Amino acid sequence: SMTIPSYQDLATGRVVHFFFGWLLVVTMFVWFVASLINGHLRRDIVPRGADIKALPGEVVDHARFRFVHTRHYNALQKLSYGVVLLILFPLIVLTGLAMSPGINSAWPWLIEIFGGRQTARTIHFGVMVLLVSFFVIHILMVLLAGPINTMRSMITGWYRVDAEDKS
Asked: How far apart (Å, rounded) are the C-alpha atoms in residues 97 and 107?
């Protein structure tokens, strides 16, 4: 009942899987180029030294469900978005390509990087688990941090921020 398509058909499931895989590749490519051009990647995603130093405090605050609303990503957000966007998404695409016989004949070095087709499959599955976990935690954090404010900011760009601490 939770499969696409809803009946047991591996061939159609594979076509749907490839369709959404290529949709992910195109979307991520457009996002990456746009983020390079407008500076979003450098400014908002890639963590800096101060972000790494602030990371333990951010983890403690999030574990205690204390969320500070600011106009910028905090250290935990930068690190998690950076890992997902710059490591996990490219890794799931590359391992998916490494399992393809057509790509294997064109780029035999790709499958060698991952240590064979079965290792690429295992890494592909492991990265999928990490991405699904990220999405579930991300949605929970949106709900815990205030879904109205968060959804309003995604749709309109208007976001309520807490008063900044001047100490």
From this structure: 10
Q: Are the beta carbons of 95 and 114 closer than 8 angstroms?
A: yes
Q: What is the pTM of this model?
A: 0.77
Among 100, 91, 87, 57, which Cα is nearest to 75's? Answer: 57
Residue 126 φ/ψ, nearest 5 degrees: -60, -40
Are 81 and 45 a contacting pair, CB within 8 Å?
yes
Phi, psi of 102 (to 5 degrees): -65, -45
- Max Cα–Cα distance, the chain, nearest Å: 61
What tens-digit pLDDT sequence spans the chain (167 residues)?
566 666 677 788 788 888 999 999 999 999 999 999 998 888 888 888 888 888 888 888 888 888 777 777 888 888 888 999 999 999 999 999 998 888 888 888 999 999 999 999 999 999 999 999 999 998 888 888 777 877 777 777 666 666 555 54
Number of neighbours of residue 165 by Cβ within 10 angstroms:
6
